User: Fold this.
Amino acid sequence: MAALVDRVKARYLPDEAVPDDSAIEEMIQTVTDRLLIRLKVDGLPRLAESIAVDAAVKALRLRGYEGSTSESASDGGSMSNSFVDDVLSAYSDDIEALREACRPKGIKFMGARR
Assistant:
C-alpha cells in the first residue's frame, strides 16, 4: 500500500495540503474494496491501481464538500461507500473492461461443421 500512498501524494500540487498517511491509506482501502467488489476478484489487478489512486485523490479532495454523506472526527474523517461509488462512476467503462480482462478464460470447444 505504501506505493499507492506515494502515488496519491504525488498528485498533490506543492501548495496543496496533503492529507496524512492514515487518511490516504483509509481512502485507498475503501476505494480498493469497492473496486474488488465491482471487478469480482480477490486482489487488485495492477492495471486497477491507477483507478484506485485517481479515485482516492478525488475522494480526499472532496471530503467535507458536496457528496459526502458521512464524516468522523478521527484522522482525516471517513467517507461512506455511496460517496466512493459516486467517485468510481467516472471509471465505469474502465472497470467493465478490467472485469472482462480478469474473467477466467475457459476452454472453448468449437462444434464440427457439417
Observations:
- Residues 66-73 have pLDDT under 50 and may be disordered.
- The chain has five helices and no strands.
